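FORM 7B: Structural annotation worksheet

SECTION A. Query
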Amino acid sequence: MWLEISQRLRARWHYVSFFFLAEWPLAVAAFGVVLTFLTSGPTILSFALLLTVLSVTTTLISFSREIHGAVIRRSRFEFVKMSLPVADLKARYRNSMVRWVEVPHRGTFLVDDASSAILRERPVTLRLGERPYRLPRELKAFAPQAFRISSKGSIVFNGELMAMASDISLDGAAGGHPVATVRVTRYFDSLCSNELCTYKIIHTDTGDETNLYEREVCDPRTRTLRGFSESRLSNHIGVSTLAITTDECVVVCVQSRNNLPSKVLYAPSGSGTIPPSDCKSGDSLQDLLVRAMERELAEETGISGPDIQRTRVLGCGRWIERGAKPEYFGVTYLAISSRDIEDRRVKVSERLYTGSIRAFPVNLKTLKRNLLAGASVVNPSCPADFRYSGSVPLLVGLRFAALDFDQDG
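SECTION B. Predicted structure
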């Protein structure tokens, strides 16, 4: 109980800090009010008293004007949910090395086959961008009001995260070796950029409309997705791993109502984001991803150390409804059975977002055969619980694990 209260208070403090940073004149005015009262002690000089009264009055008027301005700024935009033209986007990639995973009523995912193959076959040199991500001025205008819209009432924290600053590419200067650049961002920056791309934003005074999907997600010339080096969105990295037991069961977590992207759905065994603390000097991109995946797995299920045989990065892609943000997937082969999972309990620190842990038997060989025959991952060989209640990362991760099954299974 006390842990949840402290988490809620911390989340509220993060929001207040973010709001005052966006509305810095209001913060300055508030500081002026406090300072004025602190320095206006009792005095016997009438002239000094008069100056003090004038100072306090002026400061309070300024403060009230800033509050009024902040209220107006927080209500000058209207956010209207819209459907994305996914069919048009798919048509642009008809002859490209991509695959599509469409999960009814939950989302659309572009699987990048070329980058996925590189991740499985060659170490990718990791470069750290010198400058952290900053919201562009146009997006900052939406920030105070946008946060409430995109957070959907969930309890969220403004922690530092790693984001993609470039696509995986072959560096000619390094003999054609694959490289990728990451940089630091913050979660609230993603809420005010990537997570707004399914909304049409209307200025209530002028009627001007802003469509971030068309303006920021897609390249206006090719109508395909912008590369990460060209994108002005936050693009924080998501990681997911599916833990497979010795008796071929897949471990999943039930997400709570506080989880923003996959409320009350089954999610991968370990899924989340990458804090800067996961980055180590000399890491390849795969090293970073495996470390983040296994950390998330340990935090959400308690599975770690001798319970794990190995974790393998399988591929990547982009979640269209979340501003085409990057997602990476892996599989973790366990040294324990599904019976051992029954004794596991969600860590106290994770109960705000994770409800329970379960293990489902999955025939990966049959699922692979159906996938190679052209079936969607949402087919009868996929467990019914996953088909009807699986999150987008769970189903995309299951597709990767099934296609890789014979190689490692």
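SECTION C. Observations
The CA atoms of residues 254 and 266 lie 5 Å apart. Residues 2-73 form one domain.

SECTION D. Sign-off
Analyst initials: ____
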